């Protein structure tokens, strides 16, 4: 038997299957989808068995055997293997990168470096000789350098260079499961009880342990720690010795939600709108037909309740459900709603879990112990085998696009999986992405709409505050008079405020504080990016460049500034302005430690602060009845990012955060501070008018030639040498122009908005097209032609076939 293996070597040159013979010892157990160890270029690497076959082109004497099988149950199902090929082609990723992305991190291979002697030992520096007493001895580099002396390290490095030592990477795939030792009773309870009596005098602790265990079910096992109340480790070992207890290693399941009580909940009687929506979804289930629904429902319209009931229906049919939620809204509140309805049938996967916890949650899915997973982007790869529905909440969120290889979008993956299982996908949002809404308009997705909040809760009233006006009246602080007054008013009433500092885009654009003027590119209608390195403003779509103006070209004011403030500064200012105000600040700094996010929210929920101040991460998922005011500082800071989605993101964020106010009985109010009060991405928030925003933004996209009217592909080229970076980018641009059709536009070479990261210069090329059937082939051919340069110099070329980050 021959195994066709995808090896874990990140190089285009070996991005294909390699043949290995399967030794007899593995012939019965090895199946497709298993991880294996194989020798590759004389070193052991991890690989995935993609196919098993009985033929090979490789001559017999050259065929090497699989050295080890790592999984008895394959972690990748046939369906996932097929899916991987599809993603590989669509995103131009390495095959192995896609396969690894489908698995929990704990299952990915680790490689450690091992030094071996290649010459005779006595030729080696005497300093190093003691480490190689026998021919079997090796140095485990990563461990060794922790204790080695400086001279030893120097000597080792020079010996490596001279070829006296050689460094080999060795694959070490750690067992991802957590194990522990447990004790259990070996004899019958009655006898153990008797023994306890006779031990009572001489060994009271041993007696206590036996008594405790004989009063419990016989097969129950406990750790030494759990038994420490009754007897020490020594007492336990004595009992093991005498044959009363068994001591074993067992696999422990880490349950990050263990010990927590979840109030159980049941399906609520649906409102009319909800019933209609659910009816459409269940109809698709009944017809066993794949359909993608776009559910646009305002914040608080009861979308989550629909998800819950659609899942309930799926489970009743014996099928499984995947629910994707953006990372930052995977709050305990959100998780609780699923746990309350489906209890221990739910696995939760998000980045706050440790590697081990993630592995355990994944394993519960693979072993069929759960049938629902709620998780961030990568949960779309949950190894279910009988999927009945996939739900993507807040489908417009940028975090569904992975920004490293493989650059997949969870939405695309979800649709591909649902097609395989003939089941529905439900995309939900109050502010769908333009791409999705356009698809719904064309009938590719089926549109479902809910315009009203549950229980007729009114949408909060939104007021725009023109910060230019504030400045004119002499208020130079970051807070308008109105916002301060209203925050104080809330505090006196014992109600709460959410204060959003929209901080993305820190100092990357400049703006006139007098009139709100932001310099834009004359060719692209996109704001210019400030480049610190050369003190210039530049368009990163077409390369246009100008110097930073000293005075505003529009109103001649000298108040032209780089834009950006930090949350810390806001907190200090606010404390100065409102004496004694209690603030909880939530940003990357205060939420770095595990569980911090949750603790802060719980505190806020208990009313221990008047204000929750934070960045983007507070805009989602909060559902506290006492929030009656939402304030937004610098609503427009994102608007001027050099990104064609800037308006869309601004509208989405503002709508989201506005939705935090007045979700329950008390009505809410939203104050948005802005320097661009006429911009449609801000004015349409006032009316909660998605449709009007959509129409205006579609016009802009049409004029600018952006998605959803055109497709984009971006190539990011980087190199440590600036001249070479430009040269390679030029070569790439020429190649693309020559090989793509005339209707396709190739823009470049252009310096990236962040022109150098970690001493690497970055240039980019953008491809805009409507129909380009050759694209994947041309790009593949391009990568193959660059292969030698990539291998020999430090050239790097990244292709993103659906870019979401333009920096
Ligand atoms: P969304 O996900 O659209 O923001 P939710 O599903 O969170 O909306 O619903 C908002 C609030 O209304 C929640 O507190 C939820 O429990 C409640 N709710 C939803 N559907 C119903 C219903 N049919 N009857 C009563 N309350 C409901
Ligand atoms: Zn001005
Ligand atoms: Zn431009």
From TrEMBL:
It holds the Pfam family Zn_ribbon_PriA. This is Replication restart protein PriA. The keyword Hydrolase applies. Zn(2+) 2 binds at residues 521, 524, 539, 542. Binds 2 zinc ions per subunit. InterPro entries: DEAD/DEAH_box_helicase_dom, Helicase_ATP-bd, Helicase_C-like, P-loop_NTPase, PriA, PriA_3primeBD, PriA_3primeBD_sf, PriA_C. Keywords: ATP-binding, DNA replication, DNA-binding, Helicase, Hydrolase, Isomerase, Metal-binding, Nucleotide-binding, Primosome, Zinc. The gene is priA. One of its GO terms (cellular component) is primosome complex. PROSITE patterns: HELICASE_ATP_BIND_1, HELICASE_CTER. Zn(2+) 1 binds at residues 512, 515, 552, 555. Component of the replication restart primosome. Gene3D superfamilies: P-loop containing nucleotide triphosphate hydrolases, PriA, 3(prime) DNA-binding domain. Residues 547-704 form the Helicase C-terminal domain. GO terms for biological process: DNA recombination; DNA replication initiation; DNA replication, synthesis of primer; double-strand break repair. Initiates the restart of stalled replication forks, which reloads the replicative helicase on sites other than the origin of replication. Recognizes and binds to abandoned replication forks and remodels them to uncover a helicase loading site. Promotes assembly of the primosome at these replication forks. Its cofactor is Zn(2+). Belongs to the helicase family. PriA subfamily. Residues 284-450 form the Helicase ATP-binding domain. Its EC number is 5.6.2.4.
């Amino acid at each position: 038997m021959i195994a066709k293996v995808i090896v874990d070597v990140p190089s285009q040159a070996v991005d294909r299957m390699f043949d290995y013979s399967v030794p007899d010892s593995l012939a019965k157990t090895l199946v497709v989808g298993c991880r294996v160890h194989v020798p590759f270029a004389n070193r052991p690497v991890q690989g995935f068995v993609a196919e098993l076959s009985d033929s090979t082109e490789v001559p017999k004497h050259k065929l090497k055997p699989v050295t080890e099988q790592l999984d008895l149950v394959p972690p990748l199902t046939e369906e996932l293997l097929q899916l991987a090929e599809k993603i590989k082609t669509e995103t131009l990723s390495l095959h192995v990168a896609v396969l690894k992305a489908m698995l929990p991190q704990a299952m990915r291979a680790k490689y450690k470096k091992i030094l071996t002697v290649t010459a005779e030992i006595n030729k080696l520096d005497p300093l190093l000789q003691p480490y190689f007493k026998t021919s079997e001895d090796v140095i485990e580099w990563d461990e060794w350098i922790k204790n080695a002396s400086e001279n030893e390290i120097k000597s080792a490095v020079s010996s490596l260079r001279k070829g006296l030592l050689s460094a080999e990477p060795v694959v070490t795939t750690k067992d991802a499961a957590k194990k522990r030792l447990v004790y259990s009773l070996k004899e019958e309870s009655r006898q153990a009880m008797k023994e306890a009596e006779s031990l009572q005098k001489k060994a009271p602790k041993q007696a206590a342990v036996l008594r405790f265990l004989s009063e419990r079910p016989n097969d129950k096992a406990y750790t030494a720690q759990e038994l420490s109340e009754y007897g020490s480790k020594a007492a336990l070992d004595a009992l093991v010795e005498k044959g009363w207890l068994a001591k074993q290693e067992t696999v422990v399941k880490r349950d990050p939600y263990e010990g927590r009580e979840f109030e159980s909940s049941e399906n609520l009687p649906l409102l009319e709108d909800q019933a209609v929506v659910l009816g459409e979804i269940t109809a698709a289930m009944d017809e066993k037909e794949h359909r993608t629904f776009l559910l646009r429902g305002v914040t608080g319209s009861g979308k989550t309740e629909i998800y819950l009931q659609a899942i309930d229906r799926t489970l009743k049919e014996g099928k499984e459900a995947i629910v994707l939620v953006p990372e930052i809204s995977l709050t305990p509140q959100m998780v609780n709603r699923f746990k309350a309805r489906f209890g221990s049938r739910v696995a939760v996967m998000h980045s706050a879990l440790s590697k081990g916890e993630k592995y355990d949650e994944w394993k519960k899915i693979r072993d069929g112990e759960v049938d629902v997973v709620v998780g961030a982007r990568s949960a779309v790869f949950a190894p279910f085998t009988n999927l009945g529905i996939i739900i993507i909440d807040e489908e417009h969120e940028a975090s569904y696009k992975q920004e490293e290889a493989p650059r997949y979008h969870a939405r695309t993956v979800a649709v591909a999986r649902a097609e395989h299982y003939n089941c529905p996908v439900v995309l939900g949002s109050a502010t769908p992405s333009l791409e999705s809404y356009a698809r719904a308009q064309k009938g590719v997705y089926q549109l479902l709409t809910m315009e009203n909040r549950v229980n007729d809760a009114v949408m909060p009233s939104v007021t725009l505050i023109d910060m230019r006006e504030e400045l004119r009246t002499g208020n130079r602080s970051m807070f308008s008079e109105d916002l301060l007054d209203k925050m104080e008013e809330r505090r006196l009433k014992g109600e709460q405020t959410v204060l959003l500092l929209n901080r993305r885009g820190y100092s990357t654009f400049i703006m006139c504080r007098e009139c709100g003027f932001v310099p834009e590119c004359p060719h692209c209608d996109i704001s210019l990016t400030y480049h610190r390195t050369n003190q210039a403003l530049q368009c990163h779509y077409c390369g246009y460049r100008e110097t930073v103006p000293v005075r505003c070209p529009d109103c001649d004011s000298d108040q032209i500034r780089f834009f950006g403030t930090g949350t810390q500064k806001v907190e200090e200012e606010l404390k100065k302005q409102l004496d004694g105000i209690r603030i909880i600040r939530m940003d990357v700094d205060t939420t770095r430690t595990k569980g911090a996010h949750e603790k802060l929210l719980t505190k806020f929920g208990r009313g221990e602060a008047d204000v929750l101040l934070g960045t983007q991460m507070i805009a989602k998922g909060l559902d506290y009845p006492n929030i009656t005011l939402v304030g937004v500082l610098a609503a427009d800071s994102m608007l001027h990012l050099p990104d064609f989605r800037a308006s869309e993101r601004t509208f989405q964020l503002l709508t989201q955060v506005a939705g935090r106010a007045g979700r329950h009985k008390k009505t809410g109010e939203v104050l948005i501070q802005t320097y661009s009060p006429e911009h449609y991405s801000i004015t349409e928030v006032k009316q909660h008018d998605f449709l009007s925003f959509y129409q205006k933004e579609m016009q802009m996209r049409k004029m600018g030639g952006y998605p959803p009217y055109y497709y984009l592909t971006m190539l990011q080229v980087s190199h440590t040498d600036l001249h070479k970076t430009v040269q390679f980018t030029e070569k790439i641009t020429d190649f693309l122009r020559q090989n793509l059709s005339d209707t396709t536009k190739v823009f470049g070479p252009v310096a990236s908005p962040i022109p150098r990261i970690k001493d690497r210069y970055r240039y980019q090329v953008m491809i805009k097209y409507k129909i380009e059937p050759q694209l994947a082939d041309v790009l593949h051919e391009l990568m193959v032609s660059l292969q030698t340069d990539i291998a020999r110099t430090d050239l790097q070329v990244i292709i993103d076939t659906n870019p979401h980050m333009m920096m």
